[in-house]
Amino acid sequence: MSNSAPKVGVIMGSKSDWPVMEHAVAMLERLGVPYETRVVSAHRTPDLLFDYAKSAAERGLQVIVAGAGGAAHLPGMVASQTALPVLGVPVESKALKGLDSLLSIAQMPGGIAVGTLAIGKAGATNAGLLAAQIVGLQDATVREAVEAFRAEQTQMVLDNPDPRPDAEAK
């Protein structure tokens, strides 16, 4: 989304996190929310992390979605450097299937808040949706896009009440 200044920053600790974090970006695109995305590592580029987080609000960001696996320090470290809402997405790890990431993000000390989403694709998708809802507090167009998305979700269920795979053929 290059037509407007980004309102959401989507960051991840490693390029290998992209297959999960692309779902946050897809939701933002679907809802018309301008965003930026980049790799910002808590461990390999801490100075970049601090610069990114400290300058986020003055660059116009309203919320940051941070995905991380393993020790998953990225969301908490970003939250320690900005007053913007930070949404943490635990990326599934090979060793512990993302449970390590989930616990690392969820167990923030009192006083540094990170909204923690589900592990993996569902968490990234919902992080994009939640970021859009936050932006929608001040942007009626985004709020209307979120409302339309939710109505679409409801209608899909109402239109397909029979759970059997062959139900449409009958």
TrEMBL record:
PurE domain: residues covered: 6-157
Broad class of enzyme this protein falls into: isomerase
InterPro entries documented for this protein: PurE_ClassI, PurE_dom, PurE_prokaryotes
EC number: 5.4.99.18
Pathway(s) per entry: Purine metabolism; IMP biosynthesis via de novo pathway; 5-amino-1-(5-phospho-D-ribosyl)imidazole-4-carboxylate from 5-amino-1-(5-phospho-D-ribosyl)imidazole (N5-CAIR route): step 2/2
Family: Belongs to the AIR carboxylase family. Class I subfamily.
Protein's UniProt name: N5-carboxyaminoimidazole ribonucleotide mutase
Organism, as annotated: Vreelandella alkaliphila
Taxonomic lineage of the native organism: Bacteria, Pseudomonadati, Pseudomonadota, Gammaproteobacteria, Oceanospirillales
Gene: purE
